Amino acid sequence: MRMRTFGLWTGFAAVLCLNTAVLFAAGQPAAGLPALASVFHPFDGIWTDLRADAREAEGRNRTLEGLGGGVRIAFEADGTPHVKAETDRDAWMAVGYLHASFRLHQMDLMRRQAGGRLAEVTGRSALASDTFQRQLGLARHAEQAWNGLKPDSETRQILEAYAEGVNEVIREQKASGTLPSLFKLMGYEPEPWKGQDTLLLTNLLSQMMSFSKLPVYYAIWSETLGYERTMELMPVLPPNRQYPFVAAAPAGAPGASSGGHTGSGVSAGVSASGADAPLLAAHLELLHTLESLPSMAVHENPSSNGWAVAGSKSASGKPLLAGDPHLDYSIPSIWFEVHVDSPGFSFGGGSVPGIPAVLVGRSASSAWTMTSGQNQQTFYYEEKTDPAKPDHYYWRGEWKPFEVREETVKIKGGASETIRILSSVHGPILIQEGRTLAVDWLGSVPSLNMASLTGMLRAKSFGEFKEVLRPITAPMMNFLYADAKDIGVITAGRIPTFPEGTKPWLPMPGSGEHDRTGWVPYEQNPQSHNPPDGVISSANQRQTGAAYPHYLGTSAYFDPGYRAGRIYKELAEAGKVDSDTFKLLQHDTYDPLASAVVPRLLEALEGETLSGVERRAAAELQRWNYKAEEGSSAASVWWVFWEKYLQETFGPWWEKHSVPVKEHPGLAVSPKKPSLVMSLEAWTLNDPGNPYFSNPVTGEKREAPQVMRTAFRQAVEELRGKLGGDPHQWAWSRLHTRHFPALTRIPSLGYGPQGSGGNLYSLDSVGVRESVHGPTWRMIADWGSGRTLTSYPGGQSENPGSPWYLNRMNPWWEGQYNEFLLFDQASAGGNPVWTLEPGGRKAP
User: Fold this and answer.
1) pTM, whole model, 2 decimals?
2) 599 is in an annotated binding site
3) Contact criterion met (CB below 8 Å) for 782 and 343
4) What positions constitute the catalytic site (predicted)?
5) Which residues of 120-156 are buried (b: 16+ CB within 10 A; e: fewer)?
6) Domain boundaries, the chain
7) pLDDT tens digits for 282-338?
8) Bridge-partner residues for 737, per DSSP?
9) Quick check: is 304 catalytic?
10) Of the residues 258, 304, 528, 679, which is catalytic?
């Protein structure tokens, strides 16, 4: 594996890369760039900023207005800060000061993304994103939530203290001319941070984890493939085993009347034959709008792992917890590690700059992690309108006026635009092209997420932990928990109920008969506490078995369950486990789907006349251990075969019914479509004569073995063309890479692409061929040894001139972890210490 080395040359190399990238940009016609002469001034331009940020790795003394007592911040050699504060308020202020010191530009971009204010600093290219964010109204919801907080509430006081810490940095850097270099490059300065800005960022995280366009996909598939065929291929209940962490209906749950959706029948307004051309056009227009948005706007990639074992399964007799949330890769990372000790708090873990609490971490009493629940939390409605009644829609027997508001979007380098936003009772209107479509996203329902996040830091039992999560509406997350005695998991967030017969996986009529009727009681949310087998596994699989009476989402929302099953199998067979067991699992590249399907492929190839290269490719599969390791040629053969097998099976049906995949790739057949993956697995193993193996375009009758042979030959031909004629040289790392793009989109400031192991179905779960999504944080908490281990790719600083910009990347690639330290341990050995003292603000 190729590794970058870090040390004395890191800062110089990064500066050189930035110089090259920016000089290149300066020579291009980029609207909105500032006059670059001032940016590159040798004494007060970009290089001053880089040098200043590099000095963040040194000690410092500062006087901060608003501190009640002294704060000391000790840094580990890798940049992990440990805050020791005399009061809780001082601790939160120090966290704000730290976040802004190292990630201010990232915080500001996320704030602008969430609030629909990117065009102010980047130009007209961000107008579509800004319009969408203002339609969703995240900034309005944050303002309303802020105004609803009582002045003396703990949440408001935490947010105010945090904002003061951020603003101290902004004032310092403005006064000294050392704002992060990218502010100068983009020609603007950050505004003061407000408490509601943190609430805005929590709303953005909710959007990233729960806003979905799947119902739009279902609508287009239904209008092309036909509704019945769509539901056969992508049913509500998964067609394979999911390894749920709750197998039965919860105690006291009602019958299926509130949510026993089976997928049979046709929803009102959806044609079984796909004949409604205007409706299809409207859905395609809506999909086009959603596809034009930045990656953070829509939840696309479900792949996080979390598991826990009870003391009965551990070598020490105490519980262990592991978590590795998978998100989009970026430099800097979305994570910033911080540890805090104050009179009322003691915690450490992964925080998100802009949000003071750690989302995945450990306190003195408990440890926690989370995975995406994947439950459907975005619903679409078609409103009935009439040209004779402009700005009105028909709901529950009467015409009602849309809520109308106008907002002005400032555009750098151009005239401002005024956008008109309409909303119905269901939510904002996203499209009015022939049909009027509204979105009911549960992230817009009032939710006390911030109070829950800080409440987790104090929870001393699973009962307390569950209770502080009760107020969350969205996103729906599986929170895993462990303390010195117990383990547990709960799917936190609200599960909506609908009238019997409603098809929430499709856009629904907005007349009122299909509206949400209420919420599943929190006590009936999927959950488990100290299960008898001593193992909890959460890996985006459907959390419950078929007996659960409430609608959670279709099989297209949930992971196929291969990762969850692998976790259960390995922990069940491992005997007594420890932290080393968990480390191996977090880096496990075993593909459970391959282990089931490849033997059937080899059976299909028996007796066939194969070319020399085909025989050698089959031999690679014959001796494979089913691990997608970097050097594995079989992993390459398997993956390309699986892509071809999916396409050869389902592609003709998509072609026959004119699914517009060329214009909208998200509609296409791919390994990232869980329902199709599960269906093809089930047919291959149990129903090789399934009619869907036949080709509806040519009329050819086929069964699984024939389709497999065709796909295998196609795979070998592609690999031979890409990687040469010797299958032994088809290493997976030549085909599969990981890429960490810079948030600025300046290529030289990112990392990779670099050859990698793992695949979509392994525990070290990544995307398809070029992966820009995967494990962004790894943590192991061992209550037996008292040790907590963490690892994430990237570094603490967003500035390329800092030694803490990419210094964590190599250890992460090599599977190394950083151990939680105490303050005194972190401050030993000459590591830098910051001292923050109360006092009046110094004049610039």
Assistant:
1) 0.92
2) no
3) no
4) 304 (nucleophile)
5) bbbbbebbebbbbbbbbbbbbbbbebbeebeeeeebb
6) 592-737
7) 999 999 999 999 877 899 877 799 999 999 999 999 999 999 999 999 999 999 999
8) 755, 770
9) yes
10) 304
